Amino acid sequence: MPSRSGRLTARVSCGLWQVMEPSRFREYLIHMLRFLCVLAVFLLPRIVLAKCAMQSLTVWPPPGQSLPANGQVVLEGFGAFVEPVTRIDERSPRLVAGKDEVPLRVVAVHRGEFNLSQAILQPERPLRPGERYTLHLTQPKDSQEPVLPTTQRLNGTSVPMAWTVTAADVKPPRWREVPRIMEESAEMLGCGPAVHVSVSASVDEDGSKVQVLAEVRRAEGGEPVRFRLTPNDEQVAVGHGMCSGAFQLEEGMRYTVRLVAVDMAGNETAAPGDPVLITGPLLEQ
Fold first, then answer.
1. Would 110 disulfide with which of 31, 79, 118, 267, CB 3.0-4.6 Å?
2. Model confidence pLDDT, tens digit, residues 150-168
3. What pTM was computed for the model?
């Protein structure tokens, strides 16, 4: 039986009571706390990612950046905002600076394969350089229709979807090299699998000022799926996260990927070389 004097402390190990000196017991506790801290570092990201949001609306270019006088605005809807974004023309999108109100026309709508959609908007006439324009939407009268926000959270702060206008841009982006596969990943997360194939997208343009239109088609044929992707470290991730994504990549299925660099003004340049051939990654067990 453990001592009642306080000089000895009891613990359970493998179902048996063992007697431990207080100093050794403190050392044991310290080691256990260190172990739990290390365990938390690995588990916390998965706990945080265990749930998906109900909906979100994001815009490119990010609010606060400059926008060319002939610049485009890209709205991306997730969850409950997928359908409203595909019908964004019903909300009379426009850019407003003081008394200057410029309608935005829809030049393309891209529907992702997993809970995501995208609308490309172009001003009907050039914006005024030096002015700060804010996105306005007419909200639906039907209470069943979701209200689309015209603000976006950046660094923990909600900011209006607004940009300061610069001179028009007519120079198309230029590719520095032929796209190639960089890495593959397939991992089961809290709400489901995240599957990506990263492809290089090295373009002579500030990374924050260019997107890449990806056209993905099964190698044996079929209808292509198109979606604009934002590069990160001169790469684009073709696939989907655990909650949403542009492309569903089936395990072992082969796909061709065509890339087109698109700058803020909508100037386009197709990637050099043949389409990239990728294979849907196998999910980690």
1. 118
2. 999 888 899 999 999 999 9
3. 0.80
Q: Which CATH architecture has domain 181-279?
A: Sandwich (2.60)
Do the domains 181-279 and 55-166 match in fold?
yes
Q: Determine the pLDDT at residue 285.
A: 61
SS (H, E, C) the chain: CCCCCCCCEEEEECCEEEEECHHHHHHHHHHHHHHHHHHHHHHHHHHHCCCCCCEEEEEECCCCCEEECCCCEEEEEEECCHHHHHCHHHHCCEEEECCEEEEEEEEEEEECCECEEEEEEEECCCCCCCCEEEEECCCCCCCCCCCCCCEEEECCEEEECEEEEECCCCCCCCECCCCCEEEEEEEECCCCEEEEEEEECCECCCHHHEEEEEEEEECCCCCCEEEEECCCCCEEEEEECCCCECCCCCCCCEEEEEEEEEECCCCEEECCCCCEEEECCCCCC
Cα–Cα distance list, 58 to 75, 119, 159, 195, 204 (Å): 6, 11, 12, 21, 25
Q: List the Cα angle 113/253/51 in 5-degree steps.
A: 45
Phi/psi of residue 175, each to 5°? -80, 140
| Domain residue ranges in the chain | 55-166, 181-279
Residues of the chain with pLDDT under 50: 1-20, 25, 29-30, 33-50
CATH number for the domain formed by residue range(s) 55-166: 2.60.40.3710
